[in-house]
Design goal:
heterodimer, A: mainly alpha, about 0% strand, B: alpha+beta, Rieske Iron-sulfur Protein, 3-stranded antiparallel sheet, 3 helices, 9 strands
Chain lengths: ~425, ~150
């Protein structure tokens, strides 16, 4: 083996020739083949892989939709209808793409919840978590701009309301909004740039996902017990163990996805978006897509414009400092008897906000939104920092292997490694 | 270096050029209203009744969020014509109240259905989340009933 070539372990001469010069086969083998992964994952650990698959589906369908779409205010709506009626399988691509956005958010919300429940954001995975928050923000921007493209009533008025959020900032607010619009209202220049950015951002997301996975492969995965693997007896190689487990999750995921696409393609959409955009008539109830409802409810819960906007942005930005707000050294909520219930209540508050965001801003819904908003922030800013110091966690198991291998006490090292060590 | 990129996102020259709208408003009856389009935005023109003008004048300025007397909301000697940009100052929805069948809110002006802002008969914010009165466009009467906006 001459100097400068990678020392490849592959036997096949062609693969070996490539791998010696560009070790992508070795990389795949190390990162997805023999990569040591805690052996106690539950099905919550499927959702990272599912999100990756979802991103690829969105990019694939999106590229083909863009071949038939016209980003102009007079033609956008009709071009989408043409995709639905005349383009071969256009209906399939559009329904997969539109419901794919919903599936993406379902998957990512579960993925984030997993991170919160099992403390995946804690040291040493803080940066991994923060990169994840960046991905989520990019996803939100991409989804918002994608929803504007069909140029229906909800597209237009959603774009108007969201871009106007920036007018809340003092002094520079109005200039920012004019800059975003490229005019004096949401109009053709706005549609054009949204199309351009909607095409660009998924590839940016892809890049940041790469960083997310790269950071994950430095720290290794968390697991339901939240304790570090102590050796090879606590891990299994990623392939075939988790490729198989992820495949089970994938089957369920595709059943749900296909049910939406083929039996209820418009269930999660708003019928008002099948009315062409009219800049002079605002629909009675402007509601964003379901995945934005919690933040919309926070916006409307505050009776002050700037305050509402700041709290809405703050509701996600606060996730960035979550690793430092949580003062407990214990990762998994399984061993935090009090925090577990407060986190569950936070999940209910999030659900309440999602429900209220879809209702008119009056009466009981305003009260509910305010209570839920208050708890949403109290959990991060008060309960988590304080509870970490007061709460007495349950005793942690000595290792991942121990609860599986019955008969207390750590096993002698020799007896342990022999049957368990696979890699 | 970044400036050409940022600047290119601002309104282009052809967008800026479409900046005046003219209309004859003599057919609008007392108590009626018409909606014009200026720079892609609706402009509300309302032919106010004497009662509407009176209710707009008789307001204690101290109780307004964005205090402006009625006289600052219309051209001198043209109190019957109120011309405002029909865009809610909260998040940019178009308030209801132009059609006789529309809800006009608690103060007889306009009501924004998006987040519940109420405007009075001078287009001033009276209730709800909006921070400011409906904006006034630059406009002039070229004749008694000929309106030029922009």
């Amino acid at each position: 083996m001459s100097i400068g070539l990678h020392n490849s372990a592959f036997k096949n001469p062609v693969i070996r020739w490539v791998d010696s010069r560009l070790p992508i086969f070795s990389m795949m083998q190390n990162e997805y083949g023999s990569f040591p992964t805690p052996k106690n994952f539950n099905y919550f650990w499927n959702f990272g892989a599912l999100a990756m698959i979802n991103l690829m589906i969105m990019i694939a369908t999106g590229i083909f939709l863009a071949m038939h779409y016209t980003p102009h205010v007079t033609m956008a709506f009709d071009s989408v209808e043409r995709i639905m009626r005349d383009v071969n399988y256009g209906w399939l691509f559009r329904y997969v793409h539109a419901n794919g956005a919903s599936m993406f958010f379902i998957v990512v919300y579960i993925h984030i919840w997993r991170g919160m429940y099992y403390g995946s954001y804690k040291a040493p995975r803080e940066l991994l978590w923060m990169i994840g928050v960046v991905i989520f923000l990019l996803m939100m921007a991409t989804a918002f701009m994608g929803y504007v493209l069909p140029w229906g009533q909800m597209s237009f008025w959603g774009a108007t309301v969201i871009t106007n959020l920036f007018s809340a900032f003092p002094v520079v607010g109005d200039s920012i909004v004019t800059l975003l619009w490229g005019g004096f209202s949401v109009d053709n220049p706005t549609l054009n740039r949204f199309f351009s950015l909607h095409y660009l951002l998924p590839f940016v997301i892809f890049g940041v996902v790469f960083l997310h996975v790269a950071a994950l492969h430095i720290t290794g995965s968390n697991n339901p017990l939240g304790i570090d693997p102590k050796g090879p007896q606590d891990t299994v190689p990623f392939h075939p163990y988790y490729t198989a487990k992820d495949s089970v999750g994938m089957v369920v995921y595709f059943i749900v996805f296909a049910s939406l696409v083929f039996f209820a393609p418009n269930l999660l959409g708003d019928p008002a978006n099948y009315i062409p955009a009219n800049p002079l008539v605002t629909p009675t109830h402007i509601v964003p897509e379901w995945y934005f409802l919690p933040y919309y409810a926070i916006l409307r819960a505050v009776p002050d414009k700037l305050g509402g906007v700041l709290l809405m942005f703050g509701s996600i930005l606060v996730w960035f400092i979550l690793p430092w707000l949580d003062t407990s050294p214990v990762r998994s909520m399984r061993f935090r008897p009090i925090a577990k219930w407060f986190l569950l209540l936070w999940g209910i508050a999030f659900g309440t906000l999602m429900y209220c965001g879809g209702k008119p801003p009056e009466g009981i819904y305003v009260v509910l939104s305010r209570v839920a908003t208050l708890y949403y922030f109290a959990w991060f800013l008060v309960i988590l920092p304080v509870l970490g110091r007061l709460e007495r966690p349950l005793p942690l198991p000595e290792s991942i292997a121990k609860p599986v291998l019955r008969g207390g006490g750590p096993l002698p090292a020799g007896a342990m490694t022999k049957p368990m060590e696979k890699a | 270096m970044a400036w050409p990129f940022i600047s290119s996102m601002n309104p282009a020259r052809d967008v800026l050029a479409l900046s005046t709208t003219e209309a004859d408003i003599k057919s609008v009856p007392v108590g009626g209203a018409v909606t014009l389009v200026w720079r892609g935005k609706p402009v509300f023109v309302r032919h106010r009744t004497a009662a509407e003008i009176e209710s707009a004048v008789n307001v204690d300025l101290a109780e307004l969020r964005d205090p402006q007397p009625d006289s600052a909301r219309h051209k001198a000697g043209k109190a019957e014509w109120l011309v405002v940009i029909g865009v809610c100052t909260h998040l940019g929805c178009v308030p209801l109240g132009q059609k006789p069948t529309d809800p006009r809110g608690d103060f007889g002006g306009w009501f924004c259905p998006c987040h519940g802002s109420h405007y009075d008969t001078a287009g001033r914010i009276r209730k709800g989340p909006a921070p400011a009165n409906l904006a006034l466009p630059t406009y002039a009467f070229t004749t008694d009933t000929q309106l030029k906006i922009g």
